[in-house]
Amino acid sequence: MSEQELQALRVRIDNLDERILELISDRARCAEEVARVKMKELKEGESPVFYRPEREAQVLKRVMERNRGPLGNEEMARLFREIMSSCLALENPLKVAYLGPEGTFSQAAAMKHFGHAVISVPMAAIDEVFREVAAGAVNFGVVPVENSTEGAINHTLDSFLEHDMVICGEVELRIHHHLLVGETTKTDKITRIYSHAQSLAQCRKWLDAHYPNVERVAVSSNADAAKRVKSEWNSAAIAGDMAANLYGLTKLAEKIEDRPDNSTRFLIIGSQEVPPTGDDKTSIIVSMRNKPGALHELLVPFHNNGIDLTRIETRPSRSGKWTYVFFIDFVGHHRDPLIKDALEKLAQEAVALKVLGSYPKAVL
């Protein structure tokens, strides 16, 4: 390609950049106008709702459906996610709590779902995320609920039993674990490896093969593990890219998770109910009477109405010893006629039934 052809392409790119800049600015001005209209229409005592999960999910799906390349659908959706995040911050910056400290996969999930323009607030425990949302100190919380390798996150399930929260969305995050060391680490003398218990379990086979005699120490988070390694010469940490970059650690080994498809699903918790989008999921908690056929009675309404169950978990009930509650996820919105009918029939047999929320399926 000649220098003249290159120069012509650069001029074209510059012109396109100017148009993109102008269009993004126009979109931002529209967002400011939306905020003004919402504030004008508020009735006395009402609070404005700036973030609409169903609206954002629909926009991102439409972007992916209309994308013609060469950028992939997810990459294009991520670009639009950041534009939407910045525009929303002009209306009202969202505060989002997550399981901290900084550099955890929960923070990465929050950034993936809300974009980088939100105010992210680290919490020391999952239960604290729930409490911050319940108190109104933050708009939303991000909590892990299940991992494709290790299954359900019981602390999250138990927190739903203790707090009155609404599930507003979900996000799936591909989990890559790395063995990280600091500047002073003597890599041939590592005697201790820190990480969250879930991450240690997800890398069990790799650790057995490469560090069978090294102590494995479970800590509150992967980011906490990375922070500890900074000041110790004989330890390493298992954590992700965000923690490695944040704490200036080096990757001694990359992608050490035992399963190549290792992923974690996170839930977005808040206080607002989400209208249907046409591509939704619903989560419920059910407590059944302890009698023969109880599980069958629970499942029959879903089977008869052709409702696709995607997950069933059990946890000990708070009401008595050897009694349990069921956490159930299924496809559809609780306002859908068939689902509404199934829930009504289930309520007749259940001791207690609570809809945790209906929300858009994860787009990214």
TrEMBL record:
Residues 1-95 form the Chorismate mutase domain. Residues 283-360 form the ACT domain. One of its GO terms (molecular function) is chorismate mutase activity. Its EC number is 4.2.1.51, 5.4.99.5. It catalyses: chorismate = prephenate; prephenate + H(+) = 3-phenylpyruvate + CO2 + H2O. It comes from Ectopseudomonas toyotomiensis. This is Bifunctional chorismate mutase/prephenate dehydratase. The keyword Membrane does not apply. Residues 95-271 form the Prephenate dehydratase domain. Signal peptide: none annotated. It is found in: Cytoplasm. It comes from the Bacteria.
